[in-house]
Every structure is written in structure tokens, then in C-alpha cells.
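Side project, low priority. Logging it here so it doesn't get lost.
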Amino acid sequence: LPGNYKNNKVNEKEIYTGKTELFEANTYLPVGYTYDSYVPRSEFEKMNVEDKQEVMLQGAVTEASSLPVTVYEKENKSIFEDIIAMDNVTIEGDLIKAGDNGSITVKIDPLDDAELYCIIDDITFEGLAPQKLRNEEEWETYSEEKKNRIIRSEKYKDAVNSCEIAVETGDVEKIAKYRRPDHQYYTGMDGFLINLGYQNDADKEMKVTFKEPGIYTFGRFDVVSQPLGNLDSRLEKLKEDSLKNIHIGVNEITGTLDLEKQKLLCMSVPYSTGWKAYVDGIETPVKNVNVMYMGIEVNKGHHDIRFVYRTPFWGIKEGLCVLGLLMVLIFFIIYQRRKGPEVKG
């Protein structure tokens, strides 16, 4: 489990797929919370994935702001030391050639009171058909009947364009499924940040298993510890000046905010160009914050905050619909006049 959920199980239920457990976060952020500094989006995009998630606890990520720039305090640490064992795997430069369920075991030096991550980025994979993995000497000892039977079973196993990579340490195992660009369900995801949960006195080894035979390359492979010692204090700082008296209506969110200095209010609501924001009745620009959320800058003092959502281009759509109906009506009137009165005989 992630560290923020440890020792806080609230429900457990047996369902047809097995046991399901429900955990509640020990600490969490409210609907609206505030930052006193920001991280330029251009600098954020240059960071490693583990730094990106860490820096968002220290500053709001946005394109531009009148707030001071965040001084990032890095706490996560790479703990990968060496590969200490290989099974059914050979490594040649950047290429990892793995047989069926080939694996490597790496030595790590995890921190206590931390979450553990395995990072695999910029993956490429070339699946090897089973016949390419045969031991030729053993193959020649088979009868023709056995060879033909094996060949028939392998007939449709040439086009391998996805793979699973399992990561295991202690009693925790996570599986990442990678699909190549030529896969019908390719999502554009070429890397994974695999969270192996909260660790204290963790194992010193991690096993990585390649479920499908093939040739793999990684742009980056690393194991990282994310200390949790400052998590609560960082969350509390963001919650110090949060949105109060919140009312969520139809396409509208309202609340009040009291600030001792200028801050950026981040709302746990997905950003869209359809949102408009008003501070004390005056419209203020809505920013894209932390990649997916919306936010606004608010000055010192007591303020009434209002967000209103209207589907983008809705006014244009309404106008086009009315215009279309008018055109149909005009054409109908012209047609009736040209047709003239009906003659009865």
C-alpha cells in the first residue's frame, strides 16, 4: 500500500474475483488548497517522474505566475546498486535478451519509512517467436512427428507486440503491461512508475521478470525510495488557507477564502476552458495547475470565490441551431409562395 493508506482499512468484502479491501487515506487535500510559490511548467517538464510528483507538494505547477518561484527540496533517492543474478537472460550492451519468464535480480539499499518505486522508462520490445529460442542440438533429437506438432502449436505466435514485466520485492509483486505502437490498444505509454508501497526495513533485493521472450531495451531503469517524513507537514501547509463554506451546485462551485498574503488557489477539479472564475464578483483568469487541475491567483484578504462552468462553444452552438431553424423556416415560406394556391377542380 502507499504510505498514506497504511494501517487504515475501513472495509473488506469477498466478491467473485476474490477479496476486495477498502482503505482510507490518513491525510488528504481538500477541494481547494493554496500555494505561496509556483514551479514554471517548462522546468517541470524537464524533471524525472519521481521529482515531478514530489515538487507538486512544494509549489503549484503552472505556465506563469506573479508568485515567487519554488525552491525545490529534493528528498527522493536512487537506491539501485547492481545486478546480482540473471536467469534465462543475457545482457549485451543496452539489449536485454530474455527467454520465457527470464529474470534479473538487483541489489538495492532502501530507506526506512519510505515508499519504494521501480522506474522503467522508454521501453522498446521485440518479441521473439518460440522457434527462435530453440536449442538446436535438442531440436535435432526430436522425431518428425514431435517437430511438426511443436511447429503447429507455434504457428500463430510470431506477432508478439505486447509484454508483461513483473517487479517483486518481499511479499509485494506488481505487473506492468507494455503495448508497442503497432498494438491495437497502444496508449502511448512507454514507461512506468511502479509503486511497491510503503516499506520499512525492506528487502535488499528486487526481482524483475520478463514474462514474454524477446529483446528489451530501457531508456532508464532505476529503483527509488521516497521518504515520507515530511509528507504530513507539507500537506498541512497546503491546507492552512483552504477554501471554506463550499457549495457545489449545478455547474457552479462557491466558497470563501481568507489569506494573509497572495496565494494561488488550486481546485481539485479538472481544468477546462469552460470554467470561469470570479473573486468578489470580478472575473479572474483560470489557470491550468498541476497538469490537470484548475486554479486562480488570489490577493490578501477575505474573498468570495465563485467558479461557473459552461460547455465551451455552447453559445456558438446555440446560435447556429437558431440560425439553422430560421433558414429552414425561410425556405419553407419561399417554397409555399412559389408553389401558389392549390387549384381545386
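Brief comment: Residues 314-339 form the longest helix (26 residues).
Revisit when time allows.
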